[in-house]
Amino acid sequence: MLFIMKWTKACKRGASLLAALLLAFGSAQAVSTENSLTLGIISVSTQFMNPLIPVEREFMSLQSLVYEGLVELDDDYLPRPKLCRSWETSAGGGTWYFYLREGITFHDGTPLTANDVVATVKAILDLAKSPSSGNAGAYASLQYFITDISANDNLTVVIKTNRTNFGFLYAMTFPILPAALVQAENPPGTGPYKMDQFVPKDFLILSAYDGWWRGKAAMDTIMTIFHTANRELISSFEYNRVDAVATRSLTAAQYRSGISSLNLSYRTRQLETLMMNNRVRELSDVRVRKAIRYAVNIQDILSSVYMDMAQRTDTPMMPGTWMHSDIPEAFQYDPEKAKQLLDEAGWVDSDGDGIRDTVIDGNKANLRLRFLVYEEQDNSVRMMAANKIAGMLKSIGIETTPTLVGFTDVRDRLKAGNFDIALASFNMDTVPDPGFLLMSNNTANYMRYNSKEMDNLFAHLRQCLTQEEYRNTLFQIQSLFAEDCPFMCLYYRKGAILTRKMFTDARDLREPDVLRGIAEGLETR
Fold this sequence. Notes:
Blueprint: H1 2-25, E1 36-42, H2 57-66, E2 71-73, E3 79-81, E4 84-89, E5 95-100, H3 114-129, E6 148-153, E7 156-160, E8 193-199, E9 203-208, E10 221-227, H4 230-238, E11 244-247, E12 262-276, H5 286-295, H6 298-304, E13 310-312, H7 328-331, H8 335-344, E14 357-360, E15 363-366, E16 368-374, H9 382-394, E17 399-405, H10 407-416, E18 421-427, H11 435-438, H12 452-461, H13 467-484, E19 488-499
Parallel strand pairs: 1-10, 1-11, 16-17, 16-18
Antiparallel strand pairs: 2-3, 4-5, 5-7, 6-7, 8-9, 9-10, 11-19, 12-18, 12-19, 13-19, 14-15
Helix pairs in contact: 5-8, 12-13
């Protein structure tokens, strides 16, 4: 009976998929054409296209082809106009004016107006303040950037902010929806592709929107087949069921670019860190924190655990971009330097048992640290990384045993300060401002790091209107981060697109725009 039920379900899925293929391409034999792409991703939860409350990272790459924002980020990670043709700001940066392009229409033919932008922002802010089912949406940080929004006329949006800085423009990349349909399950967008057919957990068909303001999209049709697990996804690629797959799975590392296929790497926003509780006795001394930093061989973890499906970063800023400061001398792997710092801090191995100790209030204390680790569905190797780190720390006389805990437990313990060190990841915002991690008493400052100098630097950063001044201040923040060592930045996770068709000439693929450039194709843009 169970077999029959499974077989029947598979047949129904196959029938619906075949019908979709026939609709999209005319015949089953014409699935893979010159101007079409069959893509595979994992999607088990997404039920609708509305981009304001995404539930799966990979699905956001599809939404970014349908919906567009006022501003986009180019290959140099710099803001440039998208749905707006230009912007200007008042002298103090407290008021911004965005001038929309004329003639842009949504996929249903209705024109884009300033009222659509206003309605979208208000929906985002309402969601952030009163999240539905605990989901505040992907753009909840907008509540920190917008104090008021209005439409001067059909094509002029006026936004007031207390974040009078260059980073404000990065917050303007949120997708714009029609005012009357901001809460619709599948609202139309203004992007190069429109939704033709969507069966959750099964497939999605996107076709080129003839009315796109940038012209006809290079790829006529994008057929996406959803999978439930990475093994199934990779199998679909191997057996030519799909032209390409987008995945974070480490399995993708075994596929190198060759004659028949390409491996395109993309950046994610997931920053992996080694949190350190600055208030516990052992870690209140910066020399101990720096010793840990010198003892951890990040490159070894990247190659042996992550198979290079991650990119090292020594600071919270994305490496390889204009905002990242390279300070190699402060972050080099040097276990002998680590031992020297521990000696200076008074932690020595007095009894030769391999664990450093010291005398506190007349009693011997060993250098043992509580080490928390939590796993995620798409990051099952984090415990392997933790064990590597534990071994590296033991080699310099620090004893620690990684303890695997659930997400809720680790979150509660981080908030309560009930830990010494912890492997934890953060989904970094589009706006290049890591103040939530480093400012005193801020939302994710689980390290209990407290620095008036750092707080002042962030106060200044949020008043810098030019890119140059903003960049210089970010460099000062990273320099102080290196000196104070409140925690360790390890790496940003990477994803991969395995494809048999080269569809873009974009230099920098990144979440959520991992399919960036597919509408423009390989022509010079």
